[in-house]
Amino acid sequence: MTATAPPAHDRTGPSDERLLRTSPWKKLLGRPELGSVVGAAAVFLFFSIVADTFLRASSLSTVLYAASTIGIMAVPIALLMIGGEFDLSAGVLVTSSALVSSMFSYQMTANVWVGALVSLLVTLAIGAFNGVMLVRTRLPSFIITLGTFLMLTGMNLGFTKLISGTVSTKTIADMAGFPAAKKVFASFTVGGVDVKTTILWWIALVALATWILLRTRFGNWIFAVGGGAGAARAVGVPVARTKILLYTGVAFCAWISGQHLLFSFDVVQSGEGVGNELIYIIAAVIGGCLITGGYGSAIGSAVGAFIFGMTSKGIVYAEWNPDWFKFFLGAMLLLATLLNAWVRKRAEATT
Amino acid sequence: MARVRTGVRAIGAVLAAVLGASLAGCSATGGKRAEDARRAAEAQGRAAVDTPRWTFAMVTHSGDGDTFWDIVQRGAKQAAVKDNVKFLYAHSDEAQQQAQLVQTYIDQKVDGLIVTLAKPGAMKDVVAKATRAGIPVITVNSGSAESKAYGALTHIGQDETVAGEAVGEELDRRGRKKALCVLHEQGNVGHEQRCSGAGKTFGGALQNLYVDGTNMPDVQAAIEAKLQTDPSIDAVVTLGAPFADAAVQAKRTAGSEAEIDTFDLNAKVVAGLKSGDLGFAVDQQPYLQGYEAVDLLWLYRYNADVLGGGRPVLTGPQIITEKDAAELQDYTERGTR
């Protein structure tokens, strides 16, 4: 809600269609994540029927864990896509973040929290680099982040080899602060039940992102910037700042994911993460984000990640022939997205 | 833009503060200080022979950042230092790229070539070209069946099927009934051979599970899902050392009683063997594959020696259990086992 005065004739009556009252039902149908919710329900029903073990509490928590590791990154990627940009470096940035944290702690023989803090700063700086490069050079984000993706892939390997002498980091499990950090980023036990913290992080991030999108000025800026940067700039939206902040948001979540990787496995392989950026984008797209920007939601990205988690693990629960694993995965994703698009079209037709 | 610049300056200031604080926030245990204290400086390697400085090149099918090939390189480099050899290394997991890399070394007229035949068809022509150019070729790791026919001097490595068979026998010895074979690269011929080899000798049932090797949380969740679906699985075999730990965690969360076993070693696997988290590991001694390849090329150049008598020289499988773990710990930590 920027400082634009309402046109005078609006007061005369509902001549403007924007002022028409819409029923709550129609409002619901207009939500971006509606299609993906229907898709998720369909996938959930499907696996509940074909896989006997799918509905067990332990199985569902495994599915939720798989979904949360994707979902944590799908949230900022969805925001970024609503803002009209792409990030191909997000997958390897997660690995970079874990590597920096682990190697700093080890080489300096520092408390692991110090390593995590240094890693946060480095990761945020890389995210800001993406954003600043984007707004300064005006090159497409595809090119900028592809460049960052390749550089980070090389740096992950190069620095790890240079500093630790091998392609994976050394274990930091015996260092000060590790047990506490493991509780915050990996898992903790409550009454004998193992709780994966990624699920909590995920819920918190979705809630935060939804609040930002729907209730804050910054949220309006994101939609405006993605809908049309030129028009947004004309009404006074700080386009450059919005985009840089969106990239730092991606970096922040990459840091959380990276710390999860480090503190749940305590050794990080430098070659990991390649290809995950596409999975995050897929989750956001299934969740109703438009690739062209300006439309989407954080909850949608969560539903998208959940569909991905259910599909990839449901195939295992259903005990299908593993040779066809990737085929099933692709077909399920395509079906979910098609259903999503169909529901959205129906919804738009009725409003 | 002024705002951006102030932001950068602020980040710089915070970074400096953290670096300062890190000196105070030291860890009393582990870390580099412990490593330095543990290990006295190793003597610098010096050539043991005065043969001319030959150049040997190695081209493998490794992807980026693979622990296994890191160890192979280490072995090759140490042999090269001792043999007064200049050692060159290149790798690509794309067959066509790998063949092109071999071609560049032929163009450079190296004195010896070490190649892997993971995708034999793509490497056939280029290996023939090398032998025609008078460059001796030794194949390592994969391609024991094709090595001789393609004109290589010797093959050094592990027969993947034989290694798989050893796993099947060991599982039987441990009284396992239902095993899971976790493949982290779909379409890798060596992986398929390992699992089918294990299935051949194993008396119980063996199932394959494909996981996405570049995504560790996904590997863990997939194994967890499988163990939950089928509680009768009493053994999980991973095909690479980094995946063994993911399997151990999956077992814990799934509440399964399965024994976790793995191919290949690293420091964590050895620690796992010692603590009982892992049952056994199958080692093909990658260090030996690199070391022997360089050393045999040197022997061939110096003395026209050939090893193996036309048959592959096997570096594995060696089954490693809890009782070997203590001895191997130092070697895995320095990255040679």
Automatic annotation (TrEMBL), chain A:
InterPro entries: ABC_transp_permease
Membrane topology per record: Multi-pass membrane protein
Subcellular location: Cell membrane
Superkingdom of origin: Bacteria
GO molecular function: transmembrane transporter activity
UniProt keyword annotations, A-Z: Cell inner membrane, Cell membrane, Membrane, Sugar transport, Transmembrane, Transmembrane helix, Transport
Pfam families membership: BPD_transp_2
CC annotations in GO: plasma membrane
Predominant cellular place of this UniProt entry's protein: membrane
Entry's transmembrane regions: 34-55, 62-82, 113-135, 141-163, 184-212, 218-237, 244-263, 278-295, 324-343
Matches recorded under PANTHER family: ABC TRANSPORTER PERMEASE PROTEIN YPHD-RELATED-RELATED, XYLOSE TRANSPORT SYSTEM PERMEASE PROTEIN XYLH
Biological function: Part of the binding-protein-dependent transport system for D-xylose. Probably responsible for the translocation of the substrate across the membrane.
Official protein name in the record: Xylose transport system permease protein XylH
Organism: Streptomyces marianii
Lineage: Bacteria, Bacillati, Actinomycetota, Actinomycetes, Kitasatosporales
